[in-house]
Amino acid sequence: MTTLLRETLDHSSIYMPTPARIVAVEQFTELEKWFHLELPSGFTIAHQPGQFVEVSVLGIGEAPISICSSPARSNGAFELCVRRVGKLTEALHRLEPGSMIGVRGPFGHGFPIDRFQGKDIVFVAGGLGLAPLRSLITEVLDERGKYGRVALLYGARTPNDFLFPADLKAWAERGDIECHVTVDRPTDGWDGHVGVITTLLPKIDFPARNTIATVVGPPVMYKFVLQDLLAKGIAEGNIWLSFERQMKCGVGKCGHCQMHHIYTCQTGPVLSYAEVKDLEEALS
Amino acid sequence: MRILPKHLLNAWVERLRIDHRVVAPRESHGQYIFDEITSADELVLDYHSSVLPPKKYFLPPREDLFTFNAKTMEMSPVIEEIEPTVIMALHTCDLHAIQLLDRIQGTGHVDQHYQARRRKTALVSIECMQPCMDQAFCKSLGTLSVPEQFDVHLTDLGDRYAVDVGSDAGEALIRGMGFFWKPSDTDYDRFNEVMAGKWPNFDYRLDCDVTDLPNLLGASHDSTLWDEIGERCLSCGQCTKVCPTCYCFDVVDEIDLKLEKGKRVRVWDSCLLEKFAVVAGGHDFRNSRANRLRHRFMRKGKYQLEAYGLLGCVGCGRCALSCPAHITPIATLNTLNERRQASPGESA
Asked: How far from chain centre, in Å, is Cα B195?
C-alpha cells in the first residue's frame, strides 16, 4: 500500500493532486454534506486525526478540508464533511456518487494522540468543528482502553444543524463517552440544552490535572472556550486547537495561512495553546 | 581569486552566450531591467537597482503548475525546463534574497517548479562600491557583502575585475576560457584597498542594530504607528511585487469553454491586498490595512528570521522607491525605535 502523502510527494509537481472517487454522499443539513471517498486501489490515506487534504474540483479550484474519518478504519477510503461556503465547496456539493475529485496531502500536523494516553479527554466542538474532531473521537473510542474519562461537548446553531446524527446517537448510547450538546437557538420540540458552548463546561467535573482539551470551532468561539478551560485549571500545553486559515498550497509556500512565523498548513493546523498564546494574531 | 581584464569582459560574456541564455541588467526607458541580452554591448554593470528583482526568473509572475482534463481526470505536471542561464551583475542584496528563496523553496516539501529553474541558473554577482540609490539600506541589513550563494563574484579593481568562484557551476563558467589571469601580489593589495575603501561610502541607516530588529518589532506589535501608516497605505501590493524576497502566490484554474481541458496556474499574490487572509465563510484574519502592513513588516524583520534563520528584508529599497504613499522601511523601523526609546517597557 502506498500512502497518499508518499504519492503526492512523488509527483513531479507537489501541486498536482491524485484522483479520488466519490462513492456516497449524504446531506446532513442545508449547508453540509458528507462525502465518502475512495482512493485508487493500492493507496491508503494514512492521516493523523486533525490533518487535512487539499481537495480539487478540476476547472474550479482547490481548498483545504479536514478529514473526518478515523485513520484506523480508513484503508483506501476516507470521509469529508463539507460546508457549502465558497466556489470550490459549491462545486463539490453538486457532484454525485461516481464523480472524481483530486486530493493532495494529508498535510500538516494533527492531534498528537500518542501523548493523550492515560489522560482524560474533553472534546469541544462548535458547528463544523465536529468534522475534524470526529476523526479523533472515533480513533479514541476504537481504542477506548488507552484513555481515562472521555467527554464530548458539542454546540450547533439550531437543532437542525447537528452533523453526524448517527454517530451522535451511537456515542450517546455507548456509556463510555459523556455527551453534552447545546444549541444557540432552539426550535419547536427541542428540550435539550440551550446556550453557547461554554455553558456546557460546568457539566463536566474532571480534575483539571491530567486532562486534555481539544477545541475546534469557529474563530469567535476560541477566546471564550480558552478562558473557561484555563480558569478550570487545564494546562496550556494540554489544550489543543485547530486553526482555520486560507491554505492555498498546503506545503508552506503560498503564504496565505501564515500567522506570525508559523505556516498553519505545516506546523498546524493543530497547535497547543502553549504554542500560540504569545502569537497575538493567532487568537484575535 | 582570478583576474579578468576589463577589456575581456565582453569577450567572456559573448563566450557564455554560445551555450547559455545570458540575463543582465540593461537600460529600458530610463530605468534598468533584468532581461536576456543579445549582445555583450547591452550589458550594464554600473546600474542602480533594477525595477523588478531577479526572482522573476525563478518564480515567474504567472506559471502553469499542471494541465488537466476534467472529464478523464488525466493530469500532467508542467515543470519548465529552461535552457542553461547565467544571470549577470547581481547586486549582493539580490543574491541574499535568492539565498532566502532557496531556503524557503527547498525546506519541507520542495517546490519542484522553482528548483527546476534554479538548478539551471548560475549567478554572477558584483561587489557594490557606492550606494545605488537613496532608498537602499543594504549596509544596515548586512547584505552589502556577498553571501555563499554566488557562483562567480566580480570586484571592480579599476582596469580589471577580481574574480571569485563560489561553486562548481561558477568554475564551469570560467574554466578553460583563456580570459582569466592569475592574480599578482599587487592585485591582492589592490583588492584589499578597494574593499576597505568601500564601507565608508555607505551609511548605516537603521537607528538600532540589525540584530535588534526582531526585538523591536516584537515590542511594537501594538504600536499606533501601524494605524498611522495604515491610513496612508493604498493596499496596492506594489511593495510586494518589487520585493526580491516576496514569494506568496494565489492559485487559479483555467478551463476551456467545453469544461474539459484546463490548467492550474499560480500568480503572484500580496499579503497587502484585501482578502489575502480571508477564509471560506468570510472571516478575515487581517481585516485592516494597518494589520496587513504590520504583517508585512513583521514578516520581513522577525517572522522569516524565526522560521528560516534569515531576515526577510535585504535592504534593496525597491519598496520604498515604488510605494505611492511613500511608506519606507527605514522611516517605519526608525520611528518604531524612537517610540520604543521614548517609552521603554511599554508597547511603542
From this structure: 23
State the Cα–Cα distance between residues B201 and B222, nearest whole angstrom: 36
- B287-319 residue pLDDT tens: 999 999 999 999 999 999 999 999 999 999 999
In this complex, is the C-beta atom of A102 within 8 Å of any C-beta atom belonging to chain B? yes
For residues B216 and B208, is the Cβ–Cβ distance under 8 A? yes
> Nearest to residue A159, comparing CAs of A194, A129, A126?
A194
Q: Are A172 and A166 in contact (CB under 8 A)?
A: no
Question: Which residues of chain A from 150 to 169 reach within 8 Å of chain B, CB to CB?
Answer: none
The CATH code of the domain at A113-242 is 3.40.50.80
For chain B, the domains span 2-197, 210-250+270-342
Q: Which three cell numbers stand for residue B243?
A: 520585493
d(CA A212, CA A210): 7
Determine, for residues B271 and A255 on separate chains, whether the beta-carbon distance falls below 8 Å. Answer: yes
Contacts of B271 in chain A (CB under 8 A): 255, 258
Phi, psi of B126 (to 5 degrees): -135, 140
Percentage above 70 pLDDT, chain A = 100
Residue with cell 542553461: B84
* Mean pLDDT for chain A overall: 94
Domain ranges within chain A, ordered by starting residue: 18-107, 113-242
Residue A282 has phi, psi (to 5 degrees) of -65, -40
* Reported ipTM exceeds the 0.95 cut: no
The C-alpha cell at B239 is 511593495
Using CA atoms, how far residue B205 sits from A196, B145, B197, B208, B301, in Å, is 53, 16, 19, 9, 15
Rounded to an integer, what distance in angstroms lies between the CA atom of residue B344 and that of residue A124?
Answer: 41
pLDDT tier, B345 (very low <50, low <70, confident <90, very high otherwise): low
Rg (CA), chain B: 22
DSSP character string of B204-228 = ---SS-GGGHHHHHHHTTT-THHHH
Task: Residue B252: list chain A partners with CB under 8 A.
Answer: 61
* Interface residue B284 vs chain A (CB under 8 A): no
- Torsion (CA) B54, B57, B62, B63 in degrees, nearest 10: -160
User: A98 — contact with chain B (CB < 8 Å)?
Assistant: no
Contact A255 B248 (CB under 8 A): yes
Assign A20 to helix, strand or coil: strand
Residue B98 in contact with residue B147, Cβ under 8 Å? Answer: no
- In this structure, whether the domain defined by A18-107 belongs to CATH 2.40.30.10 is answered with yes
Chain A residue numbers with beta carbons less than 8 Å from the beta carbon of B265 are none
Nearest-neighbour CA in chain B from A97: distance (Å): 15
Q: Does A87 touch chain B (CB under 8 A)?
A: no
Given a contact cutoff of 8 angstroms between Cβ atoms, the answer to whether B317 and B137 are in contact is yes
> Known binder of ligand: residue A68?
no
DSSP code of residue B274: T
Q: For residues B84 and B20, give the distance between their C-alpha atoms in angstroms, rounded to a whole number.
A: 5
C-alpha Rg value of chain A to the nearest Å: 18
Q: According to the model, what pLDDT value does residue B346 have?
A: 58
